[in-house]
């Protein structure tokens, strides 16, 4: 008898485990459901991207003679939930069971695990082997210790996958990690390459109209949508990246420039996370560029590290720590997120640029997320739950499994250093070194106190003073506490007063 294969919006991969043994008679179910678009009010562009990619994926399966039952958001009777749509589909088809690939999120996994008893049908949940490391391997590769070190995991992943390894089992280039070569600021005369753009076809046009109508009050803009939405386009974008941007990716990975959101970054995360590209093919393409002499080792290694290192590591942390990870708040941060996170209207130019680009493109690159927006959230002491929701809403690549550890562990240190060896706190000096934002800012990055001082400066020292005990105990941050102690007490008091005045003056209505 036939089986129903439920494919979720972030499972758009031809070779998905739940599709692998498809045979005539089986039906693939895909559904646009209001619950998924509104459990947080996702960026309009993110919903449009995903619905368009889902519709194109369904068309592609149909072209390959696979029977697809696609429920569009506005279809008559759409129940608005995964469970409701499965229940309705089971009334349309006489099937012996349901097959689904494990979802990315705890919330959805719990839902799926309830289907068998609720709907009275056998449900087979298959592993998601698009990831290169499952939970068992994660425990093995991290040594099962209490705190986790990405670098240890990453080296083990290099050995396990063989990426950028020599025949004798050594890392290519004689080192595991070329991060030190990847911290250059961008000279004024270096221009990032021009990106390919993808025109809006009929399918995307219909989705853009649907999203504007149904979710037009969500954060973000739909203007000038030009991102890949098909497998063919995604592959073209990957090839373009490897050819044109990868060679300089490593060197300028941490750089920021006003008006240039992408620089030499891949812009592939949303395509990988929804399944149009696999992590393995992205790493394979970078490795080939290195072996062909097209990309230097620091670029290829830097890129592969982000994927088989950080991306897999972050996912391992999520599943190891869930449920409960999202509730962590080791630094007891309670302040409400200010309204300008939704409007982008702030005189702090670095934040105005990074949030403005996020609003426009549902994208900001890693250093903007980490060292501008994330750093500000850490220093200001924003409530981790609110910060998590913001990051989950605003980025087109955001799913809880990847957003949560990056927010809880990487930027906020809310898990008390489960994998970050210290809080990533920095003053305005870092942003000034890595970007040109400060040049056109109304604040002065060199000043530490007063009306015109860069807020990152007094917020930084206020953060150090607030968390003095904890930072003093950490060998990586102890020196900063000693510096604080050597500072003039009056100056410290003024900085702390400036920090309070600044933070208390940020309107925060909680609306978005
Ligand atoms: P590149 O700079 O070109 O990097 C290549 C790839 O490496 C990315 O496409 C991504 O797949 C992977 N990668 C790099 N860093 C990470 C990381 N820390 N965690 C997981 N994967 C990584 N990434 C998401 O995919 N979804 C999120 O919701 C998300 N939330 C984040 C929240 C915060 C607070 C921070 C600091 C980072 C977050 N990241 C997230 C990680 C990273 O910022 C994005 O993956 C990256 O900016 C995407 O742009 P890109 O494709 O141009 O990446
Ligand atoms: C993010 C998202 C959105 C906005 N909408 C849908 C949808 O309508 N249908 C769907 O299948 N998936 C959607 N997704 C992705 C899901 O939220 C994602 O599959 C789960 O988060 C995985 O656990
Ligand atoms: Fe940001 Fe401070 Fe520089 Fe302004 S001066 S752009 S607030 S770091």
Percentage of residues assigned to helices = 40-55%
Largest sheet strand order: 3-2-1-4-5
Beta-strand segment tally: 5
So, the CATH homologous superfamily of the largest domain?
A: DNA Cyclobutane Dipyrimidine Photolyase, subunit A, domain 3
The description of the largest β-sheet is: 5 strands, parallel
Bound molecules: flavin-adenine dinucleotide, ligand DLZ, iron/sulfur cluster
As residue ranges, the low-confidence spans are none
Instruction: Report the average pLDDT across residues.
Output: 97
Class derived from helix and strand content:
mainly alpha
Count of all domains: 3
Task: From the alpha carbons, calculate the radius of gyration and give it in angstroms.
Answer: 24 Å
Proportion of strand residues: under 5%
Number of DSSP helices?
22
CATH class of the largest domain, named Mainly Alpha
Shape: globular
For the termini, the CA-CA separation is 48 Å
What's the CATH topology label of the largest domain?
DNA Cyclobutane Dipyrimidine Photolyase, subunit A, domain 3
CATH architecture of the largest domain: Orthogonal Bundle
**Secondary-structure element string:** EEHHEHEHHEHHHHHHHHHHHHHHHHH
